[in-house]
Known about the structure:
globular, five-stranded parallel beta sheet, alpha/beta
Amino acid sequence: MSAGISNGAYGTAVPQTEARHRMRIAARRQVAADVVTLDLAPLDSAPLPAWEPGAHVDLGVAPGVERQYSLVTTTDDGHWRVAVLREATGRGGSVAVHDLLRVGDDVTVGGPRNHFGFDPGRPAVFVAGGIGITPIVAMIAAAERAGTPWELHYAGRSRDRMAFADELLAAHPDRVTLAAADEAPRLDVVGLLAEPRDAVVYCCGPRGLMDAVETAAAHWPAGSVRVERFEPAADVDAPGEAFEVELTITGTTVTVPADRTLLEVAEDAGAFVLSSCREGTCGTCETPVLEGSVDHRDTVLSPAEQADDRTMMVCVSRAAAGCPRLVLEL
């Protein structure tokens, strides 16, 4: 699932890594009600990993607290840009960004990783809801450079809460449709996707919007819809059963009880596991599966990738019912 480096990549073509980068906030801008952008500049001369539109990074927003944000950078200027919505009822990460981080502050940034890849070789139908516009901004810039036909359908509560809406509409009036709930009818997803096309639908936003897009485009050819989810799956805390796991790199076999995660048990066994969100949304802990069937509870892998059982997110996923043993490259 890691993104390769292609002609659409930004930055120096070096291998992607999970190393943490020390960066400084070079600029901060209010781009909508409760949305700020942060421009992140490297502290040394080492090249940042190349990345592709759709990628996200782990931003250290406070000691011991990381959150995942899509890169909205549209130019290759050596900086990374993220946009953050203040969510007062969230887990506190976005509030820390808004209330604590200022220009000149140093931060730790991990990644990038990409589970929402953009294909410039096919026409694109972009569907965004609210802060879900963030990965789409970089995709639109890439589509423009590649000459890819595209259109954007962007929904939000009100125009003042829709980051980048006015500038996107001004730059591309014939390709951008805005559906602000206080100004116009709701976005008609069913009508938009009624007729299958030779295109890829890219959707990011609230769960309800992404579910609606996947349902409305269910009759499109397989692989036509790509979504980016940053919230846990509904069944992430469903009851599970105990199972055994062989960790081939660590050289040990452990038992994962019903009330603990595979990640917790692997860490206790001394396995080196990169992780961040611990709720199946960021992809940091993706681990190769060598044997066994998986009960996938993440929102990162596509249904086809989950069916292949080649990798799993060990922070939430478990052995499938009836599979007593997994063998992992861990």
